[in-house]
Specification:
4 copies of one chain form a homotetramer. Chain A has helices spanning 34-49, 56-59, 133-142, and strands at residues 13-18, 64-74, 83-93, 97-106, 109-121. With 148 residues, chain A is of the alpha+beta class. Chain A has a 5-stranded antiparallel β-sheet, with helices on one face.
Chain lengths: 148, 148, 148, 148
């Protein structure tokens, strides 16, 4: 498993975090499920950066995000006390869905890649609802690479 | 730190759980904060056993429990895959508070002791409220050692 | 998102667990990353069931498992205190990799599906190593549906 | 439960962190066990600040820290997305033990107080060992209020 050092130029946003002792397992590496927590933190900070803080910025438009699919590729493990950059972008905006892409890097080294697909749903009924134009516009204005 | 093997006869209840890989840190032992999760699971199962399932059984009487103080004594670490018995009892019932006592054991060996003090509060206003007579009676009927 | 109630007949194994309070978020549902913990518990119990307890049963053959890819499909959320059955099987055994498949169900209702691909690696060098014949044989003897 | 707004002038160190979605429970508040994770992060950053990074800075002197007692007082709950300051100081240095004191604040408001007592032990034998003079000196040089 060679370190990948692909450019991250397609990402407009990243958030730094540090691996906690409680997140590292007996193998000395971050437990696999915690990367989804890191991605969740990354998504939260991304949404703050585009001016739609989670969840209030979405609730204003009667929207909330529910994860429907997560895919995580583990290239190289993160270790205790590592400083990691969680790169986040929205790769696709559907009528009522959003695809978030994540790259977790230690310096230039790519450790973990992720793709989370969220459905936008009404916060109470939890039935799918169109992504509000204000959200869509904020994403498009922010992203370096236009979402599909 | 000698293993304590005190009798647990004052406990009317215990719940078995197994240490998960994700709960064990790089020292090969359960991370200290997770014992509070074990105690929380123990409290949940205790309340189910006395017929006041958490939280609905309390909400029925306009009550909910909020932790105000936790004390944990770490005697000996729990290890990955250990089967543990979480012994639970209520040691004291105040007007609007409950003291839960916990002993986490691997077989006879006492690993961790805990004391959690909860205030009973109104679920919406979150202001202290008397422990309902039905709850008090259920505890007293269940406990081997009468709570103070 | 209709509940799926597909047969689980292709699974030889399941493990029951109960959702903890600490695992449920403000939406009242299990946080998405915790399903990977449930799958990890399921994998551990599966390996115990086939007689190769994790990790010692693998270390005996100079093997350990490292996750390289996880895919999780969220159909319907698990709620606090739900009793869930984590169905586990091995769908594919490669030269040095294992594909685990998971279905998390509440009764017949399918909540979450998962696929974890592990590479078998030497525990110290962490370089890929062939899955030992004893492990392969134990899996094949146990599985109702022959792994590919 | 009135907010306490006691001065933190006795603390030489604080570390800021933000509450994650995954740390908040169905009551909308941080699950009680996670405060021990926050304190652990605080301790890590404190040790980095005094030049004895955990654990390598201690291992150099054949020391490691094992928690023997934790006491947590919950005054007011932390909420999702709160920015918190984890104030950390060492209140007492015994022959082979260290008392860490924690205050978790949102602005001036004191939310949670903690006291963790660690024993310094040999990393392999895990038997108590004197706190090394270099560690003791680094603490004393750093602390505003001399540890007892």
């Amino acid at each position: 498993m060679e370190p990948e050092t692909v450019s991250t130029s397609e990402f407009s946003f990243s958030h730094r975090l540090r691996v906690r002792w409680a997140e590292v397992d007996r193998q000395g590496i971050v437990f696999n499920g915690h990367y989804l927590t890191y991605f969740d933190v990354g998504m939260t900070e991304y949404l703050r950066a585009i001016g739609i803080p989670y969840p209030d910025g979405l609730l204003e438009y009667d929207g909330d995000l529910f994860l429907v699919k997560a895919t995580v590729e583990y290239k190289s493990p993160a270790l205790y006390d590592d400083e990691l950059d969680c790169h986040v972008r929205i790769g696709r905006i559907g009528t009522s869905s959003l695809q978030f892409l994540f790259e977790l890097r230690r310096g230039h080294e790519l450790l973990v890649k992720g793709e989370n697909i969220y459905v936008n749903a009404h916060p109470v009924t939890r039935t799918p609802a169109p992504v509000h134009k204000a959200v869509r516009d904020a994403v498009i204005a922010f992203e370096r690479v236009a979402p599909q």
